[in-house]
Write a structure and sequence with these properties.
This protein has 15 helices and 14 strands. With 414 residues, it is α/β, with parallel strands linked by helices. It has 2 domains: 158 residues, Aspartate Aminotransferase, domain 1, CATH 3.90.1150.10; 238 residues, Type I PLP-dependent aspartate aminotransferase-like (Major domain) (Aspartate Aminotransferase, domain 2), CATH 3.40.640. Strand 13 and strand 14 form a beta hairpin. The longest helix has 20 residues. The chain is globular.
Length: 414
């Protein structure tokens, strides 16, 4: 067989929908200033699909810093991988700031979240080691685990009893091989919005010898008294051995970091292939991210306003009878009963007739017969936005029950 014969888009799980989905359900183009009110296909929409939790994307101080840093350095500097020619005092200073903020000894900057944690997992594990991870871990973790040539065990989502069984299996193996055990979970799970059971997992350290890596992409900046994340929220930040987050959520920019013991981070710094063999983060990205971290720490009102919106939205939806599942975070999933066709028609109705843009998730991400509408509140949404959305959701849910979405909506071309 010719390799290319099997690469037809119609043969891929998502690609088979591309003929009707592209540009609308998949790869949509939101235009205008980043914020709750943007434009989709030349129509204004209230946008609930922003990775901009505390509203830093268009914060005036951020925009000013980004502009000035770009004017001073351009996007090319430093030109090279950090190990070779792309290091700078500001890169190192930012790493120190991140480590201090998340209460770890050291930190390393990573160019991207997905690539960064995937490569970090590969770097940390050898063939004699065992990795144990949550079944609902993000795709970047799953792909990192797939690179591991040793044993790997998965435990059902947040099932501590089963995790203990997997740790028993892992312990038997490493006692024979001389390897170690790495447990991986998330601080906030990005689809359902629930927290990883970090208290229960760290409590198992008294019984088993393992290290814990936590991906807190959705918790960093949103959870905890000072915004450190889920570890601070649950009172176990000091029990997290390796703390990871991307800048793509609360920081509203590109990049990521891994923080932990100085000895381990230094090892990672000299062995993580995705950084050794890649250009350093451009200076304007680093300087802009430093400003974002400063605002995250010095303007707690941003996080407070986020939670004002979160509580109003989630309380209002629950009072309307909506099922929000197990969320404990700003991530707000709304679960409805319906199939893929109904989900598509519902989304069209929301966007075209109500001017509301949010993401819909269907099988295989959620079970068959379930539609999940995923809402990401931000600090720059308003109570009027919340009320408008709750009312619209009430109307489309009624239409779904009445069978309106069993037919194709005729007033829009997708």
């Amino acid at each position: 067989m010719d390799l290319f014969d099997k690469l037809s888009i119609e043969k891929s799980p998502l690609g088979k929908h591309s003929q009707y989905a592209h540009g609308y359900f998949a790869f949509p183009k939101l235009e205008g200033e980043i914020g709750p009110h943007m434009t989709f296909r030349d129509k204004p929409v209230l946008n609930w699909s922003l990775n901009n939790y505390i509203g830093l994307a268009n914060h005036p101080e951020v925009r000013k810093t980004d502009t000035e840093a770009t004017a001073q350095y351009g996007l090319g500097y430093p030109m090279g991988a950090r190990m070779m020619s792309g290091n700078s005092n500001l890169h190192e200073q930012f790493e120190e700031q991140l480590a201090t903020f998340v209460q770890k000894e050291d930190a390393i900057l990573l160019n991207y979240g997905y690539q960064g944690i995937l490569s970090a997992i590969d770097c940390l594990l050898g063939r004699h080691d065992v990795v144990v991870y949550d079944s609902e871990a993000h795709a970047c973790i799953v792909d990192g685990v797939r690179l591991h040539v040793g044993k790997r065990f998965v435990f059902p989502h947040n099932d501590i009893e089963n995790l203990e069984k997997q740790l028993e299996r892992a312990t038997k193996i490493v006692n024979e091989t001389g390897g170690g055990i790495l447990v991986i979970t998330e601080g906030v799970f990005g689809m359902a919005g629930d927290l990883g059971k970090l208290r229960e997992i760290t409590a198992l350290k008294s019984k088993f010898n393992f290290r814990l890596l936590v991906d807190d992409a959705h918790g960093f900046g949103t959870m905890g008294k000072t915004g450190i994340g889920a570890g601070e929220e649950l009172g176990v930040q000091n029990q997290i051995d390796l703390y990871f987050s991307t800048f793509a959520k609360s920081m509203a920019t590109i990049g990521a970091f891994l923080a932990g013991p100085e000895m381990v981070i230094n090892y990672v710094r000299y062995n993580i292939r995705s950084q050794i063999f890649a250009k350093a983060l451009p200076m304007p990205i680093v300087i802009g991210a430093m400003k974002r971290l400063e605002l995250l720490q010095t303007q707690p009102q941003l996080r407070e306003n986020l939670w004002k919106i979160v509580k109003a939205l989630q309380t209002g939806l629950r009072e309307k009878g909506f099922n929000l599942g197990r969320t404990e975070s700003p991530v707000t999933p709304v679960f409805l009963t319906g199939d893929e066709h109904q989900a598509g028609q519902l989304i069209i109705d929301l966007r075209e007739n109500y001017g509301i843009f949010c993401s819909a998730v269907v099988y295989p991400v959620v079970p068959k017969g379930i539609i999940m509408l995923r809402i990401i509140p931000t600090a720059v949404h308003t109570i009027d936005d919340v009320n408008r959305t709750i009312n619209a959701f009430g109307e489309v849910a009624k239409k779904l029950i009445e069978g309106v979405y069993n037919q194709k909506l005729t007033n829009v071309t997708v």
